[in-house]
Specification:
The structure holds two protein chains of two kinds. Chain A folds into two domains: about 110 residues, Immunoglobulin-like (Sandwich); about 110 residues. Chain A has three helices and ten strands. In chain A, α2 packs antiparallel against α3. The longest helix of chain A has about 60 residues. By secondary structure, chain B is mainly β. In chain B, a hairpin with a 5-residue loop joins β1 and β2. Classes of the chains: A alpha+beta, B mainly beta. At the A-B interface, α2 and α3 of A face α1 of B.
Chain lengths: ~240, ~150
């Protein structure tokens, strides 16, 4: 244990008994309305109590608190809890410059990601799906042609043979068109795919995902210990 | 967000190979160029589809001397599904145009005799065609001669 730090251990259960707050007249409620867009905040009250909720019941009195939310500047506030009443405390938070820079960097990073990977990949997928459609249609046409060729070799009815030959001719033309389209489109898909791989590798080489630490400044200050004998809240000053 | 480059490469290679593999089956359809081999087809382009198996001199029940041609239409020259008999347009030396029924043999061929007036030793020629009842006409006519 470092000398300059004092570790205060107190059992939460015994704390309630020792402090001996009278749960009646001396208590008031405070509600925090913290203006953040991520919905998360932490409030350290009087350097000793950590709140992670928007409402709590506290003994009446004046308090000093620090409000923190990821990406926002630590805000110091004061409020008064009046016994038997609910105090509403509105806290306006200001975005951290580093966080704003991170947000801009991340936005730019995502934009590049979409430009250099998502967009080419989508194009490749669309081209591949088109190839797939051509392939399925070509298969269907081929099946029809093959079936009609078999029928041709079975039939002994001249008029029916004429119809069969017409169908074979038409479906075979379709089949040849579709398979040509399939081969051309598959060629394009391969090109797009090569482009996507190249683009993605280029992106990986040139861009790194921006990082921003969202650790709470109160992280190492408070800890909750659970033991077989009870639980305790540790506060490092 | 970062995809493993190895995984990406493998997926993409598979992605390319799969359609190529599937596409390799999209070849030209066999047999499309050969849809002119059915003797019931008006555009039949095959060889003569009947065979004169034999010729002999016979005297019929009326005491007439005839040159009897044994005509055989082999199974190989016929479509897969055939009726129990077919009508054949027949014309020969000394024989007017007539439509004869050819019965199906147990072997799946058509066979029958055609009698031509006997004119002595020499060549006997015959013309056969597939008779189309709806058109009252014959298609795929072929001449064949045989020496007695």
């Amino acid at each position: 244990m470092k000398a300059f730090k004092l570790l205060i251990l107190s059992s939460l259960l015994t704390l309630a008994g020792q402090v001996g707050y009278s749960q009646g007249d001396n208590m008031g409620t405070v509600r925090f309305f913290v203006n953040v867009d991520n919905g998360y905040f932490e409030i350290e009250i009087n350097d000793t109590m950590l709140l992670r909720r928007y409402k709590d019941t506290l003994p009446a009195g004046n308090y000093k608190a620090k409000v923190w939310s990821p990406g926002y500047v630590l805000n110091r506030i004061e409020f008064t809890v009046v016994a038997g009443q609910t105090t509403e405390k509105h806290v306006n938070m200001v975005k951290n410059n580093n966080y704003m820079e991170y947000e801009n960097d991340y936005k730019a990073y995502r934009m590049q990601f979409h430009k250099q990977f998502t967009a080419p990949l989508s194009l490749t997928l669309a081209s591949a799906i088109t190839s797939g459609v051509f392939m399925v249609n070509a298969y269907n046409s081929k099946k029809r042609v093959t079936a009609d060729v078999e029928l041709y070799h079975l039939s002994s009815v001249t008029s029916e043979i004429g119809d069969i030959k017409l169908r074979i001719s038409e479906n075979n033309r379709k089949y040849n068109r579709q398979r040509t389209a399939f081969y051309i489109n598959t060629g394009f898909t391969c090109l797009f795919l090569g482009g996507t791989i190249w683009s993605y590798m280029n992106f990986n080489k040139n861009y790194t995902e921006p990082d921003y630490s969202k650790d709470s400044p109160f992280k190492d200050k408070f800890s909750l210990n659970l033991t077989p004998y009870g639980c305790s809240l540790a506060l490092k000053l | 967000m970062q995809l493993s480059t190895k995984t990406l490469k493998i997926s993409l290679i598979l992605f390319v190979l799969l359609p190529l593999f599937l596409g390799s089956c999209l070849k030209k359809v066999d047999g499309v160029d050969e849809i002119d081999t059915n003797i019931f087809d008006r555009e039949y382009a095959g060889d003569i589809w009947y065979v004169i198996k034999d010729v002999e001199q016979v005297t019929n029940e009326l005491g007439q001397i005839k040159a009897r041609l044994n005509i055989w239409i082999p199974k190989e020259n016929l479509p897969g599904l055939v009726p129990s008999n077919i009508k054949i347009h027949t014309q020969g030396d000394g024989l007017d145009v007539t439509v004869l029924d050819f019965p199906l043999t147990p072997g799946g061929d058509y066979e029958r005799f055609i009698d031509l007036p006997y004119t002595g030793p020499g060549n006997y020629c015959i013309t056969l065609g597939v008779y189309i009842e709806e058109d009252n006409a014959a298609i795929n006519l072929f001449d064949e001669c045989v020496t007695l």
